């Protein structure tokens, strides 16, 4: 399993970069999972009144929706990164967000100041809005996810970590 992150400030292109990479990997036959980290509270993944929402409102700590084309698991607590990574089996896992986690990552940014905000020693590339105005920063490539998707996806696989226990250990309880 290859694991890396795409981190950046809000509205700098994180989701766009993740979408481009998932699309590219998927067309090449990889099984890709994504884990999105959000600081927003009271997010909903289901409509009020839906059966699973009603189950949770009644006190269920977890609900599982199973249908012919999707299975969704909703837990009424935040799981640690270790709980999310250990026991899953995908070719590639892309973490979106996780800015404080120092693992191999692509930092999306709109400016060099933004880039510095999320930069860690394990940053291996920059992307997002910054790619419209720069080709390198801090001696690292700035890669446009639309124009050079293959370069970005290949670099990510070269730099990704393969050990979920190592990444979970790096989270230090923050995630």
Automatic annotation (TrEMBL):
Can you tell which superkingdom this protein's organism belongs to? Bacteria
| Molecular function via GO | GTP binding
Domain Molybdopterin-guanine dinucleotide biosynthesis protein B (MobB) span(s) in chain numbering: 3-109
State the Pfam families in the record. Answer: MobB
A biological process (GO) of this protein is: Mo-molybdopterin cofactor biosynthetic process
Q: By what name is this protein known?
A: Molybdopterin-guanine dinucleotide biosynthesis protein B
**Species this chain originates from:** Cloacibacillus porcorum
Q: Read off the lineage from the record.
A: Bacteria, Thermotogati, Synergistota, Synergistia, Synergistales
């Amino acid at each position: 399993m290859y694991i890396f992150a795409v981190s950046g400030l809000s509205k700098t292109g994180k989701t766009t970069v993740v979408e481009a990479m998932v699309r590219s990997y998927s067309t090449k036959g990889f099984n890709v999972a994504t884990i999105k980290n959000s600081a927003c509270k009271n997010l909903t993944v289901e409509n009020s009144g839906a059966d699973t929402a009603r189950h949770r409102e009644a006190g269920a700590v977890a609900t599982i929706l199973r249908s012919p084309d999707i299975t969704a698991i909703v837990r009424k607590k935040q799981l640690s990164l270790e709980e999310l990574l250990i026991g899953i089996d995908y070719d590639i896992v892309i973490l979106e967000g996780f800015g404080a986690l120092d693992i191999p990552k692509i930092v999306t940014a709109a400016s060099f100041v933004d880039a510095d905000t999320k930069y860690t020693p394990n940053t291996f590339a920059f992307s997002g809005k910054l790619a419209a105005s720069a080709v390198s920063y801090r001696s690292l490539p700035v890669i446009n996810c639309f124009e050079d998707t293959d370069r970005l996806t290949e670099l990510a696989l070269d730099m990704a970590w393969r050990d979920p226990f190592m990444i979970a250990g790096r989270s230090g309880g923050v995630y």
